[in-house]
Amino acid sequence: MTTNRFFKFSIPALALALIAAAVLTSNANAAAPEKRYVTVNSEGRIKVTPDAVRLNAIVSMVAGSNKEALAKTSTTAAAVRAALIKSGILKADIATQSITVYPEYNYTQDKGSQLIGYRGSQSFLVTIKNAENAGVVVDAVVAAGGDDLQIQGVTPFVLDASKATESARTNAVKNAKAKATSYAKLLDAKLGRVNYLVENSSPVEYSPVMAISKAADSEATVVDLGEQDVTVSITIQWSLL
């Protein structure tokens, strides 16, 4: 009999406890404030003067055989390399991109394809870390290579963009905060803590174009450095109070 009374009274008590817990949970959820936030994208941009120049050059000539073409190419390439070093370029900043030798043909409607010789070539990628000296280096290379040398590109660039990137990053955060503050005011709210920040990119923007000219009062080549953009793009989310 005692056991039966226990079950008769404990089951209704358990049901009441569950109802009370549900009511308390419902009230707690109703009292909890709705989470609000604002997410903005922003960009910081800094203009900088390039401090280095990339020089792309190729030595190329035709000879009667593969061996002769390669030998003549190597001789001219050695002269170009010596001119670079004499101009203050370190060996570590001179890189061979390719060496090729192949038969070269001339095509006419009368005779079709005719072998005219073998073309040898060696291409260089040179980093000129003293941008102001770039024109002097170009002239020295052309003098050493003569008509067997082709200048394929002279491109100013930013050798070390770390400081400029840091400044661009600072501007990006300031711009993002200003934008988020504006949205918060429109919503009658204030900015709270930052939930997250993502840096989308931090490229150095430049156009790989030929940028050389002759000085007005001399035959010396001048490399115009211009300005380039260092950009940082970010996404930040703030909670709203």
SSE layout and pairings?
Layout: H1 2-31, E1 37-48, E2 52-63, H2 66-86, E3 94-108, E4 112-128, H3 134-145, E5 149-157, H4 162-186, E6 191-201, E7 204-205, E8 212-214, E9 221-223, E10 228-240
Antiparallel strand pairs: 1-10, 2-4, 2-5, 3-4, 6-10, 7-10, 8-9
Helix pairs in contact: 2-3
Features:
single chain; 241 residues; alpha+beta; Translation Initiation Factor IF3; Alpha-Beta Plaits; 4-stranded antiparallel beta sheet; 37% helix; 40% strand
Please report which band the strand proportion falls in: under 5%, 5-15%, 15-25%, 25-35%, 35-45% or over 45%.
35-45%
Strand-and-helix sequence, N→C?
Answer: HEEHEEHEHEEEEE
Mean pLDDT: 85
Task: Please give the share of residues in helix.
Answer: 25-40%
What is the third-level CATH name, the topology of the largest domain?
Alpha-Beta Plaits
Number of helices: 4
The global form is elongated
What is the level 1 CATH name of the largest domain?
Alpha Beta
Superfamily (CATH H level) name of the largest domain: Protein of unknown function (DUF541), domain 2
Detail the poorly predicted runs. 5-9
| Main sheet characteristics | 4 strands, antiparallel
Distance between the termini: 60 Å
- What is the CATH architecture annotation of the largest domain? 2-Layer Sandwich
Radius of gyration: 35 Å
Total number of beta strands: 10
The helix/strand class is alpha+beta
What's the domain count? 2
Describe this structure in words.
The structure is a single chain. With 241 residues, the protein is an alpha+beta fold. The chain has 2 domains: 37-49 and 161-240, Translation Initiation Factor IF3 (2-Layer Sandwich), CATH 3.30.110; 52-157, Protein of unknown function (DUF541), domain 2 (Alpha-Beta Plaits, 2-Layer Sandwich), CATH 3.30.70.2970. It contains 4 helices and 10 strands, in the order H-E-E-H-E-E-H-E-H-E-E-E-E-E. It has helices at 2-31, 66-86, 134-145, 162-186, and strands at residues 37-48, 52-63, 94-108, 112-128, 149-157, 191-201, 204-205, 212-214, 221-223, 228-240. The strands form 3 sheets. Strands 1, 6, 7 and 10 form a 4-stranded antiparallel sheet that branches. The protein has a 4-stranded antiparallel sheet with strand order 3-4-2-5. A hairpin with a 3-residue loop joins strand 3 (94-108) and strand 4. The longest helix is centred in the first third of the chain and has 30 residues, at 2-31. Residues 5-9 have low confidence and may be disordered.
